[in-house]
């Protein structure tokens, strides 16, 4: 465990004209030093990182600042927030392979009828699995209900949000909403006859050997968990469920993403055809000039793909890079300010590992 030292404001790195060392991660100490700069040195409490290449975990790094409530190691489980959506998406796609779910058949009406919910907007009845997976259902994000309006259980939350009109016509617009993946969790329960957690374990986690994944409540911390700070009177983890309530190690998160790469020698639970489909843009137009959304995955114009996660005192990022590296970074704390800053951190860290020159920072006057 080591202390927090500086706040980062400006980052520089070695010129890319320097000769690059060969190998997937030739100087891991420089890689670790750069990621520490973006996380612990910037004010985070804990960080855990895993790097995969060729279907194998080739490097891990875990460290804590002095202010950490529990020193972490590579086996520590962190809240992964919306990276949980990859778990749910992969489970749904295994059921598409089995014919129990159909990407383009209406599902929300069946789910609502099964759990006794009334749909205020009849258009919601025809929302498909594909539209839920791609955030094109037309359902609003309802951030206040999840994160600002006190305590809801999942059913009371769904009763309220489905009791309102859709924000847009289904299939017409990308609108990120946790509700989409909560409904996918209910659809998984409907077609399997299992609890969401049991279905995920049987269809994805156990076959892939990912033993660290657990669903947790807002105030639930096991002996292997990083101790994320949580404010009082909250129930966001209970509401999120399939959309954001998993914890896992950085290594298992990297393995999860790698299992969606049909070119990897890792074990797969989804067919090649549907793994490729998950990586195709599924929105009517690009979400931003920098990234689009597939089926449960963010697709970056850089060639990276994966998912991010943000929740109270949590930043999570897992990326499959064009160079074949899969990098998972899990952070406990409020820094970096924006979770997508971890994309730059990963890029800088990989570059530093190849040049032997770590990124540096200057301190604002």
Polypeptide structure, described:
Residues 41-348 form the Beta-lactamase-related domain. It holds the Pfam family Beta-lactamase. InterPro entries: AmpC-like, Beta-lactam-related, Beta-lactam/transpept-like. With 365 residues, this protein is an alpha+beta fold. It has a single domain (10-362), classed as DD-peptidase/beta-lactamase superfamily (Beta-lactamase), CATH 3.40.710.10. The protein is 32% helix and 16% strand. The chain contains twelve helices and twelve strands. The chain has a seven-stranded antiparallel β-sheet, sandwiched between helices. β9 and β10 form a beta hairpin. α1 (28-38) runs antiparallel to α12 (341-355), α2 packs across α8 (196-208) and α3 packs across α7 (178-192). The two termini are 28 Å apart. The model is unreliable at 1-14 (pLDDT under 50).
Biggest sheet overview:
7 strands, antiparallel
CATH class: Alpha Beta
Number of domains: 1
Unreliable runs: 1-14
CATH topology: Beta-lactamase
Number of strands: 12
Mean pLDDT: 93
Number of helices: 12
| Morphology | globular
Query: Termini distance?
Result: 28 Å
Helix content: 25-40%
Label the CATH architecture.
3-Layer(aba) Sandwich
Q: How do the helices and strands follow one another from N- to C-terminus? A: EHEEEHHHHHHHEHEHHEEEEEHE
Query: In the CATH hierarchy, what is the superfamily?
Result: DD-peptidase/beta-lactamase superfamily
Structural class: alpha+beta
Radius of gyration, rounded? Answer: 20 Å
| Residue share in β-strands | 15-25%
- The spatial strand order of the largest sheet comes to 3-2-11-10-9-8-7
